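Co-fold these.
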Amino acid sequence: MKVAYYSPFPPERSGIADYSALLFPALQQRLDVSAVRRGARRPPRGTDVSLYHVGNNPDAHTWIVDALRRRPGVVVLHDFVLHHLVAGMTLGRGDADDYLDAMHRDAGTVGRLLAHGVVDKLLPPIWEERAQDFPLASVVLDRADALICHSRYVEGLARQYGYDGPISVLPMPAWPPVDVSGTRRLVPEGDAPVLTCVGYLNAAKRVPQLLEAFGRLRETIPDVRLVLAGSAAADVRLDSQTLSEGVLRLDHLEEDELWRLLADSDVCVSLRWPTMGETSGMAIRALTVGTPLVVSDVGWFSELPDAVAVKVPVDELEVETLVATLERLVSDAALRARMSAAAADYARQEHDLDRVADLYVVALEEGAGGTSVQDAVLHDVATAAGEVGFDMNDPVLGDVADRAREVGLGN
Amino acid sequence: MRIAVCAPQVPFERGGTEILAETLASRLRDRGHEVEEVKVPFKWYPEARALSEALIWRMLDLEEAQNRPIDLVIATKFPSYAIRHPNKVVWLVHQFRQAYELDGPEFGQFGQAPFERATVRALHRTDRMVLGEARRLFAISNNVADRLERSTGLGAEVLPPPPKQLPFRSSEDRGEFFLSVGRLDRAKRVDMLLEAAALDESLRVVVAGEGPDRERLERLSGKHGLNGRVDFTGRVSDDELVDLYARSRAVFYAPFDEDFGFVPYEAFLSEKPVVTTRDAGGPLEVVVDRQNGLVCEPAPAAIAEALSWLATNLDEARAYGAAGKRTAERITWDAVVDRLLGS
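Predicted complex below.
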């Protein structure tokens, strides 16, 4: 089976580009798969199935969704909320009508009215404030023969959205750990516990809440440190006035520095709200090196085993819970050791690259057929039913549909 | 108890599974149970027909008959284990092999087209669902159990079936030939035996059985000039089979990754050593190299060497046959019935 692979790749800088840099070679060992050049209008000759990696960034994914619109295929849904992508593909191209239509398709007349408000600049852009309320996922769901996603959460959202094709929930592949023995240490030597938050630092990563919790944690554990590593978004202020004592601010890290930092950390904090249905490559890296996680109890993060991640609900007690959670982890070395061992085991078993690549092959082979196999079997049934005087809408045949579901034919 | 023993039936074919189901039913009746053999004709091609056949089994209602409950169903192989019953026990002979270990260019039914790959995956999904719901899962060999676990994650207890109950014996009137028994299809690899015979002019071979590969094998025999040293008997009666086993020097049985295979047991009960290959699967669970037979590489030269060694080392060959008999006699129907009924 010949597969055309649509994705951003390095040197583009995105989590999905990194993901594909990892996954693609493993798939090449298993399938006849070729990467489609960015902007190509057609897949390679002889392609049986196209695999589209779709995320929320219009710069990285518009050309991929354009290709999906020309030819349906299997979609890897890295984010469920695609409002920002759709806005880029429509308003970003000066096509307000398409944006209105997308909002109408997902949210009816109210959606269209809101979209008018945005287009006419009477309302702030929805993608900046309330994207999660209007995911606009139909743009890909309508053209997907099958979906691959990384959480039951996204699977559930797709089903709620009315998607009735095959969905495979696969673990995200884990990077093999990098040897960091020769990499310089970024945090000071010593026994002081180190908490780390790495990535694009924005309000959705709950950075303000983390900073507040850290300040309170310092009252009881004065030597604890917090490393904030990564570029900062405009919606958070990370300067000397807002950062309390004990916070170490690092900008861009090279890959080996990132691994070293995670390995030297006692706890990795990976909070999120709102969630766009995304996974976190940084959380997976932390698990790989056996660093205990503190995450928000939402979306994909909720599905991590309790043995490797402490989950903090996003509610009015979020900061208090976070303080208590960090205090417990920082002061209980035995607990951290147990979580560390469990994290490394979990990453090795669940997120192993070869395992994920094998599961991709299964998902692609299932998905490439779409509903054709089910249709072939039901055609047999319909033919037999027709020959004895039934049509497929006869209620008597409801039993056939139930039995078909029981053997995996039909949703 | 009222028990339904379920097995697919390929029309006009009769092989190990049919015999297994019939004998099981008979042994259950001997214990005083009311037993019905349920057979549905099986056709696995073209395309996704195998899945339609699974659905046919699923549509059957074996929960009761004439307003009396059927207490237990024992299903044997794909697609009979798709049957729906609250007390389903599966004694797995094999899954639909074309979708598993035989999936590939050499033995497979399915190619690389998206529809065909999707059909294979749909078959896997069906297996996970309908085998996963069984109250107990047994497999006829470690090989079958391992494959099941690899493909579905489901564990099965290994429960080997006894061979056909025939008056197997060893004859002092030994023939000069090596015997191959079984259905003639490519996966049984009788061609390797013929190629071996072509390499050693002293080897004589009797091929007992019928199947779709017979014509090709006969052509191969002719091509190598083996006429006179290789006999194709076609299907033989039970008496003829017992006699062939009794008079053979040794038995060759080297299918590719076979589930189980009664042939080594029948050979052992006839006190004959078995020659098999390292990739034969199920037979390797009973044939132990230089204890009750020879295990060699799956190559004609290695097979020729093994057969020739047995032809010249008669004492060892006799000792291997005797050791094999002791192994085969340990597998009994009483033990099988006890475990299937959970006692």
